[in-house]
Amino acid sequence: MYVVMVGGGEVAYYLSKQFIDGGHEVLLIEADPKKRERLEEALGDITLGGNGCRIQCLDQAGVSRADVFIAATDADENNLAACQLAMIRFGVPRVLSILNNPRNRNIFHKLGIEHTIDVADLVLENMKAQIPVFPLVRIAELEGEELEVVQIRIAEGSALLGKALGDTRLAFLADAACIVRSGEAPHAADASTHLQEGDTLVCVVPRETLGKLESELALGPG
Amino acid sequence: MNAFIMGSGRVASELGTLLDQEGHKVTLLDLELSMFDKLPPSFTGRTLAGDATDEEFLRKAGLQGADAFIALTRDDDRNAMAAQIAKHIFGVPRVICRIYDPPREEFYKTLGLEAISPIMLFARLVKGRLED
After folding, report:
1. Measured on CA atoms in the order B81, B84, B86, B89, is the torsion positive or negative?
2. Closest CA to A117 of A86, A92, A145, A137
3. What ipTM was reported for this prediction?
4. Could you tell me which of B104, B93, B6 has the C-alpha nearest to residue A78?
5. Class of CATH domain A131-219
6. B101 contacts: CB under 8 Å, gap ≥ 6
7. Could A80 and B54 be called an inter-chain contact, meaning their C-beta atoms sit closer than 8 Å?
8. Close Cβ partners of A165 (under 8 Å, ≥ 6 residues apart)
9. CA–CA separation, B6 and A146 (whole Å)
């Protein structure tokens, strides 16, 4: 696979390394000669100097034969310009962008750049996962982004404690969630599963139900 | 006309002043208020400080329902992004953006954006004069 990345920061470095280790061809476009030097010292001759938002530069990078294009600069306007060129002008089948400002998700998606990685959001959800006061944490988006993998934590004081899953507002998760409980192998939760403190439910839910789920968890049992 | 202009350079200031003099409602947007120093004291329009590539800022600035959005900063990428937000999210009927880089002027035109490259504009103008 041929992967072209714009922006030679930390994310691009680690990602390139993974692609290279997997036997893929990688080209990193980075304007800063110092950053390029560091990248080449670590990863070999895989960088191209220049502005990844310029048609000439993308041409030189052979973007028209790229299988994947990743925009990972720290400015969303640069990421948007690079992605639009890669997608429309060069016809790259898979175009991804890092988002520095979560608000920009809307315009990227409106313009057809559906695969965005929201850095602030990732950090936020990872932090929430470490702090027990947040009952609902989004773990990942599934292909197409209409589905989300979430974890629901049954913490001390939760109104769901001791209730059978089928008797709560979360009844719709019966047979659809995997229950993770200390001392037990993870297994499917059914309507009769009694929720205990420390239980975690892992499930795949449609994105549009997240708001409902959040409010159900705030409300407690039905 | 209710016009929003992104930028505070010479062209943005001149355009804002011209529209203001003709009685149009003009709002100039740029990152900091101190950047609007090229406007004459007679300018009666609004100047707002903020990031015009940020949808929320544009909403608060009142872009919804505006007649025109013109992006005139020095940065092609910022101009293109703000112009596309104005067109596709706020549905502004007339959106014009300055794109210095001629190949990208062409590219954005194919996307239905009214892009103008000052380089190409001037080159064509001079060429036209030579042919007169």
Report:
1. negative
2. A145
3. 0.92
4. B104
5. alpha beta
6. A54, A55, B76, B117
7. no
8. A171, A173, A174, A177, A189, A190, A191, A192, A193, A194, A195
9. 35
**Domain architecture of chain B: domains with CATH:** 2-131 (3.40.50.720)
Contact in structure between B28 and B5 (CB atoms under 8 Å): yes
The Cα B87–Cα B95 span in angstroms is 6
* Tokens matching residue A187: 């297994």
pTM: 0.84
Tell me how far the alpha carbon of residue B88 is from its chain's centroid: 16
Residue with tokens 């310009």: A81
Domain boundaries, chain A: 2-119, 131-219
Distance from CA of A89 to the nearest CA of B (A): 8
Name the closest residue on chain B to residue A54, using Cα atoms. Answer: B104
Looking at domain A2-119, its CATH superfamily turns out to be NAD(P)-binding Rossmann-like Domain (3.40.50.720)
Can you tell me which residue has the tokens 């703000």?
A: B82
Please check whether residue B101 touches A, CB under 8 A.
Answer: yes
* Predicted confidence pLDDT, tens digits, chain A (222 residues): 999 999 988 889 999 999 999 999 999 999 999 999 999 999 999 999 999 999 999 999 999 999 999 999 999 999 999 999 999 999 999 999 999 999 999 999 999 998 899 988 888 888 888 887 788 998 888 876 688 899 998 888 888 888 999 998 888 888 889 999 989 999 999 999 999 988 999 999 988 888 888 888 875 444
Q: Which of chain B's residues have a Cβ under 8 Å away from the Cβ of A103?
A: 54-56
